[in-house]
């Protein structure tokens, strides 16, 4: 036997002075896992075994003479036990506990300590303490299943089945070897794997089963024995499962249980039932059996912040919690400390990430709510369609009000085949365009309502990607009333211009009659007034004709004559006529086309008149209007340039719309109806040409138009 050796206190000759059991208890071992310390009645350390140098990295000489308080952690140091005159009475015969001792680097290391008061023993006169290191055990779970049988209820988390089967087979195998009985309630798959492993380890399961030393049951079969309305029934549980344990416990055998019922409930989403079952297991333990229970949960079941509380409830139900293999498989303390640090770092970054995500989620929620409100309250009808399936995925109430369908009728319906787009060709074309183009727009698209009426909508479509899907957003603005008003206005213009035409024509006739008479009578004064009247009547006639043309264009009733005519001749004729009506401007003609144009000579003349009159009207400060003619291979180009007030870019397209007039202060002073350019551009368009303007505000304007050449014209141009 190795003996405490301290020359001052205990000599070899005093060995027999130790009572036998004390000697056995405190005989310092030779291994490096234990430190033996002797303390005198004042708490001063009188001896330390050399193992302190490897366990706490300090020389025993440095410790001897120090107070016990210097070695022990303040929380573990109880002065009453170690100090003062009453020490002999205060320290009990033998005391055990866990203590932290100071390492040389200042850290605290855990030890299992046992102190025995031998102050009164002659020749010893010391409190004898042995400290066995447990730091490693404190940090690491016990992995030796032969030692764990004293645990009541522990839980193993795991990531893969192989690790679980390894742990459980070791737990059960050790038990069966040492005479324990085992009860296994596991999934069919785990049962098969487990039994295969046990057999591979040399366990005779048949024999064990015959003696009720090994009882196995499939998890769902076991659950069916006691589950009532989704929760475990306490009485049924203790009868069914307690019965199994009672069979195993015969002849006072210790029982090891592996159960997956809680895990099964958890996986099925019955978390409350699982926690309840854990409680029942704990109750069963107390009454009337003693057994070790091994529960196992797959770690992925707890992946998610929402499981945080339930996870800690599960842990609370167990006397031991064993982390999954990513931690358990690390053998070295240093590796484990690193793993813990990494986990802590991960946990704190996850916590930070969660905060950030919550913030982002709440921002997203705000913007989603805002979008939803805008979507729902928009006066425009909004439809969202999946571009691949053409099915309507969302629709607001304005659409349902506009078209008379319910939301339910529209959601999931194919928009292209729904009645609303099917009734008119133009609507079908608009739908195809919406499918094919990134965006499209129609001013007044006829859509059919559920009860067969036609509503006109301003239709805008936009195609974009959302959540990895191509979607088409369609917005529908009801313009039926505007359309109706436009129709009435057109009807009124048509009617009014027809009504005006007749009296003005008669006025013109009578005027000509009076003019002829006055010429005969030689009444110069009357002739002068009649000429002025004629000019005004001509203006009035031109206005009425414009209005009539407009109405005819609207209804598609404007008739174009088709004849071949010489363009240069027409231009010269018109320029000469207009020149006669103006004293303020000189019309300058440049170039020629030598072209024959096929079309309505009078209507093309009307275009030229309109452009020249505008050029004169909108350049009151200037004195020249230029007219240029050019001939290309396929078409001719005619341009009318003035040096007047010009047109800002914003209006360049719109001046060709019906009734559009630039309404800035300067333009307001010029008379007109705003239909001349509309009619002119329509005439050019009907002849297969184009009209456009080049201008800047205050810098004059140049109106251009093209006309295609006849085949003969093209042939001549190519010579
Ligand atoms: P209006 O009868 O008003 O002249 P038009 O259709 O001929 O109608 O022209 C439309 C508008 O375009 C005019 O109101 C005017 O504002 C602008 N405009 C047309 N020609 C010219 C021009 N040569 N210079 C400046 N503005 C012009």
UniProtKB/TrEMBL annotation:
Signal peptide: none annotated. One of its GO terms (molecular function) is phosphorelay response regulator activity. Its main location: membrane. Pfam families: HATPase_c (PF02518), HisKA (PF00512), MEDS (PF14417), PAS (PF00989), PAS_3 (PF08447). CDD domains: HisKA, PAS. Residues 495-711 form the Histidine kinase domain. GO terms for biological process: osmosensory signaling via phosphorelay pathway. Residues 36-76, 367-415 form the PAS domain. Keywords: ATP-binding, Cell membrane, Coiled coil, Kinase, Membrane, Nucleotide-binding, Phosphoprotein, Transferase, Transmembrane, Transmembrane helix, Two-component regulatory system. It is found in: Cell membrane; Membrane raft. It is a multi-pass membrane protein. It is an enzyme of class 2 (transferase). GO terms for cellular component: membrane raft; plasma membrane. InterPro entries: BphY/WalK/GraS-like, HATPase_C_sf, HATPase_dom, His_kinase_dom, HisK_dim/P_dom, HisK_dim/P_sf, MEDS_domain, PAC. Residues 350-377 form a coiled coil. It comes from the Bacteria. Its EC number is 2.7.13.3. It catalyses: ATP + protein L-histidine = ADP + protein N-phospho-L-histidine. The keyword ATP-binding applies. PANTHER family: SENSOR HISTIDINE KINASE GLRK (PTHR42878:SF7), TWO-COMPONENT HISTIDINE KINASE (PTHR42878). This is histidine kinase.
């Amino acid at each position: 036997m190795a003996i405490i050796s301290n020359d001052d206190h205990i000599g070899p000759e005093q060995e027999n002075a130790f009572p036998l059991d004390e000697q056995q208890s405190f005989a310092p071992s030779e291994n490096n896992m234990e430190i033996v310390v002797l303390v005198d009645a004042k708490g001063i350390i009188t001896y330390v075994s050399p193992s302190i140098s490897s366990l706490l990295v300090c020389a025993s000489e440095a410790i001897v003479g120090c107070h016990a308080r210097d070695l022990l952690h303040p929380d573990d140091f109880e002065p009453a036990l170690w100090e003062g005159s009453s020490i002999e009475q205060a320290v009990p015969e033998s005391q055990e506990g866990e203590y932290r001792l100071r390492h040389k680097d200042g850290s605290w290391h855990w030890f299992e300590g046992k102190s025995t008061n031998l102050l009164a023993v002659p020749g010893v006169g010391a409190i004898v303490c042995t400290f066995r290191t447990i730091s490693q055990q404190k940090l690491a779970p016990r992995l030796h299943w032969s030692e764990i049988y004293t645990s009541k209820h522990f839980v193993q988390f795991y990531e893969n089945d192989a690790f679980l089967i390894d742990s459980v087979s070791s737990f059960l195998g050790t038990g069966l070897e040492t005479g324990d009985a085992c009860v296994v309630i596991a999934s069919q798959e785990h049962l098969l794997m487990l039994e295969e492993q046990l057999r591979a380890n040399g366990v005779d399961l048949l024999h064990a089963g015959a003696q009720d030393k090994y009882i196995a049951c499939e998890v769902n079969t076991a659950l069916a024995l006691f589950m009532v309305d989704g929760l475990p029934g306490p009485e049924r549980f203790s009868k069914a499962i307690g019965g199994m344990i009672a069979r195993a416990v015969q002849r006072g055998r210790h029982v090891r249980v592996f159960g997956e019922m809680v895990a099964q409930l958890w996986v099925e989403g019955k978390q409350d039932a699982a926690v309840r079952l854990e409680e029942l297991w704990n109750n069963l333990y107390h009454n009337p059996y003693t057994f070790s229970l091994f529960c196992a949960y797959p770690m992925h079941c707890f992946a998610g912040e929402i499981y945080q509380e339930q996870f800690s409830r599960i842990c609370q139900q167990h006397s031991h919690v064993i982390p999954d293999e990513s931690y358990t498989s690390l053998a070295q303390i240093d590796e484990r400390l690193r793993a813990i640090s990494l986990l802590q770092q991960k946990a704190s970054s996850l916590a930070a990430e969660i905060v950030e995500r919550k913030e982002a989620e709440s921002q997203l929620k705000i913007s989603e709510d805002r979008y939803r409100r805008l979507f729902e309250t928009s006066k425009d009808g909004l439809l969202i369609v999946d571009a691949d399936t053409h099915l309507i995925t969302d629709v607001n109430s304005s659409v349902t009000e506009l078209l008379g369908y319910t939301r339910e009728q529209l959601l999931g319906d194919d928009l292209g085949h729904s009645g609303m787009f099917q009734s008119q060709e133009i609507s079908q074309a608009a739908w195809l365009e919406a499918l094919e183009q990134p965006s499209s727009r129609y001013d007044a698209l006829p859509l059919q309502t559920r009860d067969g009426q036609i509503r006109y909508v301003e239709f805008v479509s936009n195609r974009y990607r959302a959540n990895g899907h191509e979607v088409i957003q369609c917005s529908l603005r009801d313009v039926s009333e505007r359309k109706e008003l436009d129709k009435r206005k057109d009807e009124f213009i048509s009617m009014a211009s027809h009504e005006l035409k007749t009296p003005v024509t008669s006025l013109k006739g009578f005027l000509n009659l009076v003019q002829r008479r006055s010429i005969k009578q030689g009444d110069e004064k009357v002739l002068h007034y009649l000429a002025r009247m004629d000019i005004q009547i001509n203006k009035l006639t031109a206005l009425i004709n414009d209005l009539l043309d407009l109405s005819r264009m609207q209804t598609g009733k404007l008739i174009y004559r088709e004849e071949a005519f010489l363009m240069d001749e027409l231009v010269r004729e018109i320029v000469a006529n207009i020149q006669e009506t103006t004293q303020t401007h000189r019309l300058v003609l440049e170039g020629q086309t030598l072209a024959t144009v096929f079309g309505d000579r009078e209507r093309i003349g009307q275009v030229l008149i309109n452009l020249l009159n505008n050029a004169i009207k909108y350049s009151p400060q200037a004195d020249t209007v230029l007219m240029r003619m050019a001939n290309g291979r396929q078409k001719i180009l005619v341009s009318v340039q003035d040096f007047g007030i010009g047109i800002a870019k914003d209006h360049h397209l719109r001046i060709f719309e019906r009734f559009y007039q630039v309404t800035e202060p300067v333009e307001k002073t010029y008379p007109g109806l705003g239909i001349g350019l509309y009619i002119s551009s329509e005439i050019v368009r009907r002849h297969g040409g184009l009209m456009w303007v080049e201008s800047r505000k205050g810098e004059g304007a140049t109106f251009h138009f093209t006309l295609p050449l006849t085949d003969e014209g093209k042939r001549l141009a190519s010579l």
